[in-house]
Amino acid sequence: MEITELDGLFMTPARRKALAGVLALAERGRVELRGLAGSAPAMVFAALEGLKAPLLVVGDSLDDAGYLYQDLTKLLGDDAVSMFPSGYKRDIKYGRVDPPSQIMRIETLNRWNDDPALRVVVTYPEAMAEKVASRKSLSDHTLALKVGEEIDLEQTRRWLRENGFKEEDYVYEPGHFAVRGSILDIFGYSSELPYRIDLFGDEIDSIRAFNIETQLSEQKLESVSVTANVGGSGDVGGESVLEFISPDTLIALRDADYTLSRIRAVAGETFSTSAMIADEGDASAMKNLVDPDKFDAGFKSFAKLHFTAVRAAETVKQSAAVWNLISNALPKGFIIRISTLFPTLSASCWPTDTRSIYFPTARNRLHALRQYLPRGATTSPSPPCCRPSMKDSLTMLHGGACLPTIRFSTVSINIPSRGSVPAAANLPCR
């Protein structure tokens, strides 16, 4: 089955009509889409039409954003989706710039307001916590070149030097340029490949993107824009990404509270002591972080679309009732482990003397799941003995002895009788 056929089966005419109504509601307040698990969010976002600006999708982490990006590119194509990552390796507190990520950030900024083909931008809190260049700074530090136009080679060299480019014999990384006779090679921060400009006198005869390994041309172009490193550096100044994008932008995210708290946490960090001792990284990188209070205030003015894998609000109350029924009757040492995002079916026994709910998922997913747990339940990373499998399941362990696995892909589950707990109870599918 082709992916276009799958999209047609998922986004039925009724769902598309309902989705159009959702967009109107999102402009007036909080809208939440429930029951979107796996690749379902991407299929919904791909069906959104009539937006005034590219949709901004915020994942909970780099991994989460990566999955959303991959799904969306499969549905919409590479040109319609852009990734907006952090410009630093690991965390910004280590001050280690990541040139490929800087290129992706600036390329996305260049396309954000001017490229009609761009429909979705995918990012995550750590990337949003970093400042971006203002539109004016981006324009002032961008050199536009077009075939047939005349340029002054010496004046162009001067502009490149003044904007932080370094002249080399051959370009091999962003920020380099080289002049060999009538050929000008430039590796800017707005493209994954460098450009080769061939001059005939002062006129641009041809522009080609070329491979730095082979030095061979890969694509002929009519016009290009070369942007300096304006990824939020202190020399150029910067602003929040919310100030850069259109106020008509719709923001789709899993958990607004977590997103804002994560941005506040990143902005509150200090430069790494270990990096300082080792004299590694750029300590001034911390100046590139946004003001969390100002960001929070600006964030409230945008229309937002919340999405979650949980099906319906009433299932939380029903789950709480079932949980209370079970937990009150279970002896001490009886543990219930629930798998949701990364299902776990088979696991070694895990002795315990407390009642808990284990979510065998990444730590950065737990925050999104806690709000759907019954009151009094606790969460924890999965035991080291857990091994993932392919089915959603609920496994009961007691005193180090494995009890039967209970799947909740259906509404009913079977529970071993203990005290007043019935042999069967209803647990709504999450």
SSE map:
Elements: H1 3-10, H2 13-26, E1 31-33, H3 40-47, E2 55-58, H4 62-76, E3 81-83, H5 99-112, E4 120-123, H6 125-128, H7 135-140, E5 142-146, H8 153-162, E6 166-167, E7 176-180, E8 183-187, E9 195-200, E10 203-210, E11 217-221, E12 223-227, H9 241-244, E13 250-253, H10 256-267, H11 273-277, H12 292-299, E14 303-307, H13 314-329, E15 334-338, E16 357-358, H14 363-370, E17 394-398, E18 401-406, E19 412-414, E20 424-426
Parallel strand pairs: 1-14, 2-4, 2-13, 3-4, 6-7, 13-14, 15-16
Antiparallel strand pairs: 5-12, 7-8, 8-9, 9-10, 10-11, 15-17, 17-18, 19-20
Can you count the beta strands? 20
Give the DSSP E fraction (strand runs of 2 or more residues): 15-25%
Main sheet strand line-up:
1-14-13-2-4-3
User: What is the CA-based Rg, rounded?
Assistant: 26 Å
Give the overall silhouette: globular
Number of helices: 14
Output mean pLDDT: 74
Q: Give the helix/strand class.
A: alpha/beta
| Residues in helix, % | 25-40%
Question: Regions with pLDDT < 50 over 5+ consecutive residues?
Answer: 232-236, 330-430
Largest sheet: 6 strands, parallel
Distance between the termini: 27 Å
Structure in words:
The chain is globular and about 65 Å long. Helix content is 31%, strand content 20%. Residues 232-236 and 330-430 have low confidence and may be disordered. α3 crosses α4 (62-76) and α10 (256-267) runs antiparallel to α12. The longest helix is centred in the C-terminal third of the chain and has 16 residues, at 314-329. The chain has helices at residues 3-10, 13-26, 40-47, 62-76, 99-112, 125-128, 135-140, 153-162, 241-244, 256-267, 273-277, 292-299, 314-329, 363-370; strands spanning 31-33, 55-58, 81-83, 120-123, 142-146, 166-167, 176-180, 183-187, 195-200, 203-210, 217-221, 223-227, 250-253, 303-307, 334-338, 357-358, 394-398, 401-406, 412-414, 424-426.
